[in-house]
């Protein structure tokens, strides 16, 4: 602690710029896009003070133009991962002792660098490497990451302020120690902000980290490291190791100093990691913290009193923005028969109006899906829906990977509420609709639909209900209590904002430690209570022992 009780700057959400035609930000991001498109960026490993080029490289290809090469990234061998761990532990000696306000200043500076001079580089890298349109890039790679960094500083101050009572003659204090060891961060492709947040939230609390980014997010991962370094993050506090996820993970999990994992990605991968941690438990010096946000099968449920245009817009935006590759994206929808034809018309109209193509052309709402594996998986489910008797494609259904991995936004209508695409996470621009009978509708029938929604999926990440009837909204809020960690009333299930809607799900969707909240930061500290007695007792006898 420094020499004062410092107030941190109040965190405010980073304003989202419009990028409307004629704005300076539009011109700037397009120029930066061109530069990065032609730059041939080389991404090393970041280990301690070194930028390691192993010579074993992979190319970085934009999903919307997969033959074009925008750069290469170097792949770690086991010895590099081991070095990253030892460098992290070495850095811990100084970092864990540094005053909190010094740590805070680094990450606040990183936020200001991203909001200012790095904004368009972050956006352009995300547009190119992850195929996001400018709006999706801006809300992620510029705004959300700034929000994580700034709000986390505010939450850290709140945590440190939480102190116990002290009785007369005693002073009780709680010290929020970083974990003893290092934290392993594994990040997904779909949010640049998550990639920045998972290692930095632990580091902010005084931890050191080994970070393994996704192979499909390497371009923006590189800019994140540039920003952290320019912000003054000391060497070794966050070590970035790229490469074979299993080898990197097995090497990390074999270390006795492994103290916690901050994971976001798919459910099966997380379950596999959890099992490995379980089998290694005798090796560790402390019980590792296990934090994971994983898959979803997010729902929209409309009551017969819902407004059809609002329901349609929730579907169009909730299912298709960023090609449905948000963990919160709506992918199963339950609609009343009485509203179906109206909602269908609106949704079909919306989907037909979407333009699809490169993010450089800003009139495109939809871009490519992340890689060939994802493309092939989505195409196979679309083909299956074309053949199955209990499914029908009402709009979309085409795909083409000749230049980029383009999947047309697709709406499947099914007569089976347990049809495979109502239950399986596809992670792409495909939404499935089930229409329920709302003849002679009453509270019991609404309860039955809620039960169906609740029991259909193993996941519980996000869900939205739309209803003009307050009693029905209240009933669904209660009945769907465990169906979603983020529950929306009269809204789409996507678009959580740091500081406003802390994000995370339960059941197979994760440990629900709510990224961008105090709850999450609490996982990266281990409290020590210090009790100090001013005038200690000198006689063991209590008064009751008197004759
Ligand atoms: P993914 O599981 O394929 O990859 C995530 C990370 O895990 C990557 O860094 C990857 O290299 C690594 N990985 C892959 N296999 C591994 C293994 N065997 N051992 C260790 N690490 C391994 O996920 P993705 O395709 O990058 O992201 C999409 C998934 O992430 C979806 O399931 C989505 O729902 C989920 N997601 C969840 C949230 C949330 O907050 N709940 C947010 C974003 C994404």
From TrEMBL:
GO BP of this protein: L-proline catabolic process to L-glutamate
Catalytic activity: L-glutamate 5-semialdehyde + NAD(+) + H2O = L-glutamate + NADH + 2 H(+)
UniProtKB keywords: NAD, Oxidoreductase, Proline metabolism
InterPro entries: Ald_DH/histidinol_DH (IPR016161), Ald_DH_C (IPR016163), Ald_DH_CS_CYS (IPR016160), Ald_DH_N (IPR016162), Aldehyde_DH_dom (IPR015590), P5CDH/ALDH4A1 (IPR005931), Proline_metab_enzyme (IPR050485)
Any one Gene Ontology cellular component term annotated for this protein: cytoplasmic side of plasma membrane
Molecular function GO labels: L-glutamate gamma-semialdehyde dehydrogenase activity; proline dehydrogenase activity
Protein's pathway: Amino-acid degradation; L-proline degradation into L-glutamate; L-glutamate from L-proline: step 2/2
Entry annotated with the keyword NAD: yes
Record EC number: 1.2.1.88
PROSITE patterns hit by this protein: ALDEHYDE_DEHYDR_CYS
Keyword Amino-acid biosynthesis: no
Superkingdom of origin organism: Bacteria
UniProt domain Aldehyde dehydrogenase: residue ranges: 57-524
Pfam families, per database record: Aldedh (PF00171)
Family in the record: Belongs to the aldehyde dehydrogenase family.
PANTHER family linked to this entry: DELTA-1-PYRROLINE-5-CARBOXYLATE DEHYDROGENASE 1, ISOFORM A-RELATED (PTHR42862), DELTA-1-PYRROLINE-5-CARBOXYLATE DEHYDROGENASE 2, ISOFORM A-RELATED (PTHR42862:SF1)
Protein name, UniProt field: L-glutamate gamma-semialdehyde dehydrogenase
Origin organism lineage: Bacteria, Pseudomonadati, Bacteroidota, Flavobacteriia, Flavobacteriales
Gene this chain is encoded by: pruA
